[in-house]
Amino acid sequence: MSSSAAETFRAAQRAATIKRPAELPPAPSDGKRARHDTEDDAGTVGTAALVEKITDPHKLQQRQKQIDLGKNTLAYERYARDVKRHNRQRGDPRTPDITEPDSKRQFDGRVKEWRRKLHQSIAAQMAIFGGASSIDDGLVG
In the chain, is it the N or the C terminus that has fewer CB atoms within a 10 Å radius of its CB? Predict the structure, then answer.
C-alpha cells in the first residue's frame, strides 16, 4: 500500500470511529479559537459542546470489558452498597465514560484512577466506621 493510500485509509478509519457534530461554526480569521453560544430546543443559550463520541463497536466493547472488571470487585460492591447514588459527593469515584474520545492510554489511566479512588473511599469508610484497613481485591462471585 502506498503512503498516500495508507493515509487515506487511516483518515477514513478515523472518520468512521468518531461521530462529528453536524455543523461546525466557522473558524475565526485571527487564528484564535472562539467560544460559540448555541440555543437549544428549550430556548436556553449555552456553550456548544463540540465533544466527539466514539462509536466504533469493537473499541466500545473493549472499554466496557475493562469497566466490567472494575465493577466485579469487592471494592466496587462495597462502595455501591454503602454509598447510594443520591448520596455521592463531587469527589467520589465516577465510572469512566466509554464514549469519550480518549486514546487507549488515556482511557486506561482514567480506569486506573477510578479503581484507585474506589479503594481509597472504601478504606476511608472502614477507618471511620471500624473494620479491616485493607481491601481484598478478589472477584465477586
Answer: C
Q: Nearest-5° angle of CA 116, CA 120, CA 125?
A: 150
Question: What does each C-alpha distance from 64 to 68, 89, 116, 140 come to in angstroms?
Answer: 6, 24, 18, 18
| Structure confidence by residue, pLDDT tens digits, 105-126 | 999 999 999 999 988 887 877 7
Rg of the chain on CA atoms, in Å: 21
Q: State if pTM tops 0.70.
A: no
Contact 117, 93 (CB under 8 A): yes
Give me the half-sphere count of Cα atoms (radius 13 Å) on the Cβ side of residue 134.
Answer: 3
Q: Which of 102, 18, 21, 55 is nearest to 10 (CA)?
A: 18
Q: Where do the domains of the chain lie, and which CATH numbers do they carry?
A: 54-129 (1.10.8.1120)
User: Distance (Å, rounded) from C-alpha 70 to C-alpha 98?
Assistant: 13
